[in-house]
Amino acid sequence: MKTTNALRFRCLGWMAATLLLGPLFLLGSCGNQPSPPLPFATFPLTGDHPVRWLTAGPDGNLWLAENPPDQLGRFTLPGKLTEFPIPASSTLRSITGGPDGNLWFTELEAGKIGRLTPKGKLTEFALPTVHGGFSSGPVWLITGPDGNLWFTETFANQIGRITPQGTVTEFSLPETRGARQLGEIITGPDGNVWFTDPQQNTVGRITSLGVVTEFPLPTPQRSPDEITLGPDANLWFTEFDANKLGRITPGGKLTEFPLLAFVQDPTVITAGADRHLWFLALQQHSALTSQVLLVRFTLPHLRSAA
Q1: Structure confidence at residue 16 (pLDDT)
Q2: What is the pLDDT, as a whole number, of residue 116?
Q3: Rounded to an integer, what distance in angstroms lies between the CA atom of residue 306 and that of residue 148?
């Protein structure tokens, strides 16, 4: 299976450059008349700290997960970045705003879930599962519909739940003939948590009681990766190896949509305020050169209504 990490981190760096860096509008001139402000603003981030994920915090600021070194960054307008060191060898991955007004994040190598208050107080919660003497591999993290935090344990074939007070419950996924490498996790419109499994070629659903249902994609080796809730109340996901978008209803009905021929390797996907889906992909120019694309997808019912 292809790895999406390089593209994901490349795209996140591009997103950080355009999204994180404040309301400074670039002004030009045409004769004596100033041109209107451009709708972009950029601020260079200090240092060489790869940004692994970002989220809007409950305190109204933007928060970044960085490594190496392992740090959480708080970005306040008009452009101040404050960084909070996390213990070494944590390997930060995803970060989200919790229901308790704090920031929650995963520590891949340390096998912990971390909590940071907006004022910088750090608490870490060790996960009970150790896989082969190593971390269980927490990666993706979201706030679930039940007011708890849900996360994937990619090395241990599990999905975990942690309460805002720090109580951890782990749910084993069905045994498979091969290894799992869980993709993204998201809250669905049905009050359940949904996830992708690229290596098993499935999209899964887990209830608050831990009941797991998996839906195999109709064709093999599609690598379902990132997933989002669409404006039509269905789940939409990217199929990295198939160059397609997939849609699954809360009841489990799957439909696939081929991309344009020159659009390849779709990854991060989200629903826009314009009721379209937006995702990142590549346009390959040659064997050695490619360009990151931001692609808009109009939902079928909107196309038919046009």
Answers
A1: 40
A2: 94
A3: 40
Task: Reduce the DSSP state of residue 300 to 3 states and report it.
Answer: helix
Question: Is the backbone peptide bond immediately before 69 cis, with ω within 30 degrees of 0?
Answer: yes
**What is the arithmetic mean of pLDDT over 91-100?**
91
224-229 and 158-162: which strand pairing? unpaired
96 and 58 Cβ atoms separated by less than 8 Å = no
* pLDDT exceeds cutoff 90 at 35: no
pLDDT for 276 beyond 70: yes
**Whole-angstrom Cα distance, residue 41 to residue 46?**
16
Widest CA span in the chain: 70
The residue behind tokens 């993204």 is 184
Residues 6-25 pLDDT 10s: 444 444 444 443 333 333 22
Q: From 117, 227, 223, 219, select the one nearest 164 (Cα to Cα).
A: 117
Report the DSSP pairing between strands 168-172 and 158-162: antiparallel
With vertex at residue 91, the alpha carbon angle to CA 89 and CA 94, rounded to the nearest 5 degrees, is: 155
Is 0.85 surpassed by the pTM of this model? no
Distance CA(26)–CA(32), nearest Å, equals: 16
Question: Encoding tokens for residue 62?
Answer: 């933007």
pLDDT at 287 over 80: no
Q: Which residues of 96-111 are buried (b: 16+ CB within 10 A; e: fewer)?
A: bbbebebbbbbbbbbb
Helix (H, G, I), strand (E, B), or coil: what is residue 13?
helix
- Domains in the chain (CATH in brackets) are 1-14+47-172 (2.130.10.10), 183-202+209-306 (2.130.10.10)
Determine the Cα–Cα distance for residues 248 and 146; give it in Å rounded to an integer.
Answer: 22
26: left (phi over 0), alpha (psi -120 to 50) or beta: beta
Among all chains, which residue has been given the structure tokens 């996140």? 12
Give the separation between CA 228 and CA 187, rounded to whole angstroms. 9
Tokens of 203: 């999209």
